[in-house]
Specification:
Layout (H helix, E strand, L loop, with lengths): L3 E2 L1 H9 L4 E5 L3 H6 L8 E2 L5 H4 L8 E5 L5 H12 L4 E4 L2 H7 L8 H6 L2 H9 L4 H21 L5 H10 L12 H11 L4 H9 L7 H6 L12 H17 L9 H5 L1 H7 L1 H4 L2 H19 L3
Helix pairs in contact: 8-9, 8-13, 9-11, 9-13, 10-11, 13-17
Length: 293
Amino acid sequence: MTDSIDIKKLHGLLENNTRLTLLDVRREKDFRSSPATIPGAARMNPETMDDWAGKVPEKELAVVYCVKGGMVSRSAAERLRQEGKEAVFLEGGIKVWTENGHDTDPSPRINEFLRREDIDLLRDAGLNEEDLNHSIKVARKALEIAWRTGEELDMLLVGQGALFHDLGKAVTHEMEHGKIGAELGRKLGLPKAVTDIMEKHIRGGLTEAEAIELGLPVKDYTLARLEERIIIYADRLVDIITEDIVPIKEEIEAEEQFVEILETIPKYGKNEITMKRYFGYHQEIQTLISTPE
């Protein structure tokens, strides 16, 4: 038999509810950077195959996939065949699967805290589709990063704070959209923790001197909670990922090249004070992500 399966055939098998075992064998770093899976897939660490290879059912086809259909999934499929299983790897991996427009299941935390009623509320408040799509992407990225840190966080605050951070753009795209958004949020009955994020997200937590310079109310804009800092970090990452200014192929590259990007592209770094703040958030969050649980 062949040792691989293509995207079209796998999609057909899943559409027909064919019994098979679908295994996500991406390396831990790759999975944590983008935890969405092909629907129905079980997450299996390729580095611990000794623990689970023997438990894969023998009477149904096992389809294993990694990021791009490279050596990780090929080696896993070969190992399963050595165990007497019927196993193939997915050509092109989850990358080609998503590029062909097929659905993925987000991390349960992302799915649970990106709420349809909040999205509808933003639309009803007058946020245009471009700004709404940006806000949804920021919420997904913020929830993904929050999950990757392994910290005990208020995930609803992360989801809502990220979704509503640009509500003020329903009125204006000028600097005061944070202040206006917070006022709108209070009228909508949003929690104070959410409206605080809306007001404080401008340049990631202004100093008093910056607030005066920008003509904004002088108050404490410090991002005191990790949830707030994750949202602001995610907002900057989404800009880098989606605006086609930086030539990146994978989203994780925005994190890996974060410091260099902000230092070389004024649009993202703004100024020395803003960059220093963002670098602090970047270092803090990446340290949490890279520290084993």
